[in-house]
Write a structure and sequence with these properties.
about 30% helix, binds zinc ion, 5 helices, 3-stranded mixed β-sheet, Zincin-like, single chain
Length: about 190
Amino acid sequence: MRRLAVPLEPLLPLFHRLNREHFDGTLAPDGRPLVALRWSDGRLTRTAGLYRRGWRADGSDLCEIVLSRPLLEPLPREATLSTLCHEMIHAWVDRVLEEREVHGPRFRGRMEAINRSQPGFKVELRHRYPLPREAARWIARCPRCAHEAAYQRRRRGLACRRCCERFHGGRWDPSCLLVFEPRSAA
Ligand SMILES: [Zn+2]
Ligand SMILES: [Zn+2]
């Protein structure tokens, strides 16, 4: 069962466009990006994107935006734009304003200004997208309601929220424990 894969969009042209339209070009002085960009491999599934800055083991600078291939690949382009723009705001706060904040007032101010200025995509504080079934190693099934969800890792002690709410007043109950099966066998 293979999905038709659309080739991943190169990130650099998107970065330059967003940088021009929403950051006054400050993220690429003289046309050179202050931050490296790349698509993740298949393992980045806890978040759609991340910005990080630090040092590599060899002492060189690390400053990069990584976007999750497994989460964003199956979604419409707006999800990539919104995620990239979110991470670019982090880079802008860190590298241009040189402020230490995560989703603080400067981040939110810029996010709201970007959202007001165009209708094509919306930047949000959280960008968690569901893991597509094709990218997951495990399928967790509720033995009571048969609801299924995709997981990258096997997790112990997870119970079906819906059934715990319906049958146990919202409290965790072992009768609703999810059963994990490797996806290949599902
Ligand atoms: Zn963030
Ligand atoms: Zn259930």
